[in-house]
């Protein structure tokens, strides 16, 4: 009986090693995941959530774990949307909005909502209509920043379960229909005309006040001048009275003569006067004045 011998072909051993090496390479390829900085990967095992891979090198179990979703965590902008809204004073407006958001928890976004952009756009439209419905048209125009903050806060509360952060919400424009716009333009023109009339009236009132102040100042200055003149005349009268008291009638006659001379001088200085008519006793007044001056010199 010839014994049975097993002969191993060296070529078969090489194939086995090659298969084993290939399996190892495949396991490394499937088990090592490099996630970019701007992404997060959602890993499932047998159809269930297994892990969320962050940026960098990550290890998973080959053939069991699979990357089902690659989610970008960069900030996104929804397309500008326009929705109709009615204010509390029954004015139809068209509000153009823009929303920026980013995904913080991909596992919530993947398994709780199908179309994130459409869901956020619908939520924003409803919140915008609700917020504008509480305000009058003038408040919408003047309190836009406050309205934006309210919309942003309400949107954040609404999308919190979706693992989303609303980074910014903007109201780009508030459009009105032609009839409302024409009425507002008329109201604006009327308001401008009213302000112009008020400004003109204020100017006139201020001018009257200033003129009254000027007249009062002029009257005060004239009163002061009259008082000074009266004081001077009183002083001069007192001096004359003292001279008359000391020198008798000669002083009085001297003053009368001086006044006559001054009066004649003023008449002679008038413009256009070629002939001066003197009273008969004018020369006597001059003579009396000179006599009195000579007498005073002695």
Automatic annotation (TrEMBL):
It is found in: Membrane. GO terms for molecular function: peptidase activity. One of its GO terms (cellular component) is side of membrane. Keywords: Hydrolase, Membrane, Protease, Transmembrane, Transmembrane helix. Belongs to the band 7/mec-2 family. Gene3D superfamilies: Band 7 domain (3.30.479.30). This is Modulator of FtsH protease HflK. It comes from Maliponia aquimaris. It is a single-pass membrane protein.
């Amino acid at each position: 009986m010839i014994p049975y011998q097993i002969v191993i072909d060296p070529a078969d051993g090489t194939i086995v090693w090659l298969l084993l090496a290939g399996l190892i390479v495949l396991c490394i390829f499937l088990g090592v995941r490099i996630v970019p900085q701007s992404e997060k990967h959602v890993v499932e095992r047998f159809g269930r959530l297994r892990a969320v891979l962050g940026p960098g090198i990550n290890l998973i179990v080959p053939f069991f774990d699979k990357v089902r979703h690659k989610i970008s965590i960069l900030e996104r902008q929804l397309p500008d949307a326009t929705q109709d809204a009615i204010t509390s004073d029954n004015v139809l407006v068209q509000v153009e909005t823009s929303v920026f958001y980013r995904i913080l928890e991909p596992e919530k976004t993947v398994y709780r909502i199908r179309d994130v952009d459409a869901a956020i756009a619908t939520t924003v439209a409803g919140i915008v209509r609700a917020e504008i419905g509480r305000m009058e048209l003038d408040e919408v125009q003047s309190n836009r920043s406050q309205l934006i903050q309210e919309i942003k806060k309400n949107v954040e509360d609404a999308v919190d379960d979706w693992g989303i952060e609303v980074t910014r919400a903007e109201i780009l424009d508030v459009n009105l229909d032609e009839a409302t716009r024409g009425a507002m333009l008329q109201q604006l023109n009327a308001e401008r005309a009213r302000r112009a009339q008020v400004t003109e009236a204020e100017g006139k009132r201020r001018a009257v006040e200033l003129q009254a102040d000027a007249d009062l100042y002029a009257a005060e200055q004239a009163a002061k001048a009259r008082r000074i003149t009266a004081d001077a005349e009183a002083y001069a009268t007192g001096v004359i009275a003292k001279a008359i008291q000391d020198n008798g009638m000669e002083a009085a006659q001297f003053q009368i003569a001086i006044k006559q001379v001054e009066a004649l001088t003023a008449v002679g200085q008038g413009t256009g006067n070629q002939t001066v008519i003197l009273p008969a006793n004018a020369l006597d007044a001059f003579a009396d004045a000179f006599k009195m001056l000579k007498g005073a010199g002695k």
